[in-house]
Each structure stands twice: as structure tokens, then as C-alpha cells.
Amino acid sequence: MSSVSLYTQRDSNIRKTWLIFTLFFVVVIGIGWVFTRIYGDPSILVIAVVFSTVMSIVSYWYSDKIVLAMSHAHPVNRENARELYNVVENLCITAGLPVPRIYIINEPAPNAFATGRNPEHAVVAVTRGLLERLNKTELEGVLAHELSHIGNRDMLVSTVIVILVGFISILGDMFLRSMFWGGARSRNDRGSAGGVLLLLGLVLSILAPIAATLMQLAISRKREFLADASGALLTRYPEGLARALEKIHADATPLRVAQNTTAHLWFDDPFTKGKRTSLIHKLFMTHPPVEERVAALRGMLV
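The structure corresponding to this sequence follows.
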């Protein structure tokens, strides 16, 4: 039986992420083609692309400030959080990354997240509970995971995904509204081919946003696996990250600042703590099940 190293695990996750990404683009192009054929007006696609791109770029540019404000995080430095700062700085030197801005959230629940548009404008935020409950090797594992999100450019990937999902949702919404107001009637009058296209467009406008969201979540889960593998590679001690995952997931202290819009950013999903997951629920999770993340870490060879 072949063994799985940290490097092969990381490479496998990268390949799977880009495979889903490619499938995503194929779906977007296919939907665009169908809607263009139905309306006979390519300008609809241009408007949808421009609108969803502008909205996503704005959110990409200011997302760190928005998330930090929503989380009630406050900045710290070497003088008032020396131990935390030293751990982050040492990991950044190993990873070849600039030291990000560091924030602390005054919450008893243990958790953390990274945000920012690129490594030069990145932020790592940890809760007070994380610093109180984890030992040094566990804390290093969590911080290495978050720094890996920065090093792997996950913020950029997430932004591109948001653009694609937004594009599909806008197209579907525009089609349904035009159906309501009779805008696609002329196509329907062109015979059976027009009717088939109209029916296909109706099905796509309902199912495509759901499929796009599922692919978005699948990519998000793959990025978590990738950050786990990269973080373990950074510390050379997967067991520290595995223990941190178990400890954080088992802690049922509610994270009061967590919201549905920011749940995917946190190290551990703040809304599924201590819960086992059904097969259907797994499809809609922003994070992989903790037991799978821990098993993957403990199955790696350093």
C-alpha cells in the first residue's frame, strides 16, 4: 500500500481544487450560452459579468476591515502580546511570508481566522479562548494553518468563486424575472426548439445557483484540507494541529461574534461544534468534518 506524505497530500488537494474550479467555469460558460440563445442578446451577459465582478472586487478590497469590525477584533503588537507575536513571526520566517497584522477577539470560545487581499495586507485574528486553552504546539498548528491560507492565496480563490456564483445567480434571477414579465415569449413562439431552450433555461435558472453554491462549498472544504496539509508541513508536527482541532471542536462555548456570512473563515465551523454530520449536511458544510481532517493529518508521513 502506498504511503501519503505531506507533499502528496498537498498536491492532491491542489489538483482537486483546480478540477472543481475548471468544472465551475464550464458550467458558467454553458449557462451563459443557453441564456444568450434564449434572449438573442449578448449584452445581458456583459451586464451580469460587469455587475458581479465590480461587487466582488469591492468586497475583496475591503473584506478584512468588514470582517474585523464584525468580529470586534482589536490589534496587538510585540509589546502587548509578545508570545503570540513571536510564534507568528517564527512561522512566517519559515514560510517566507511577511508578518501579518495580528488581532485578538475577546471571546472565550477557541477559534481563529485569516483574511486580507494578499500576503502584504493579511490579518490573523485569534480569540482569547484559543490562547487560554491551547498549549504551544497546538497554537503553532492553528497559526500555521491560518498562515497557509495566506500563502496559498485562498482569499483570491474565494473572491473568484464569489464572482462566478454571483454571476450565475444574477443570470438566473434575470431569466426568472423576464419569464414573469413575458420577456422570453418571442423565443417560445419560434417552435419546438425555442420551447426546449426556454424549458432548459427555466431549469438552469432554478438549479444552477444551487449547484454553484455546492461547488463553492466543495472548493472551500478542499482549501481547508490544503491549509491543514500546508500547516503541518510548516510545523513538521501534524499531531499538534490534530490535537488542536479535536480540542477546539469539542469545546461547546458559543462564539458570539460568529455569523453565517463569516462562518467559512473560521478555523473550525462555529456552528457545528461537537456535532456529528449526516451525509446531506456534509454537502452544505463550509468545513470538512473534523474527524476527516484529523484522520488525514494522522495518516500523513512527515
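The mean pLDDT is 81.
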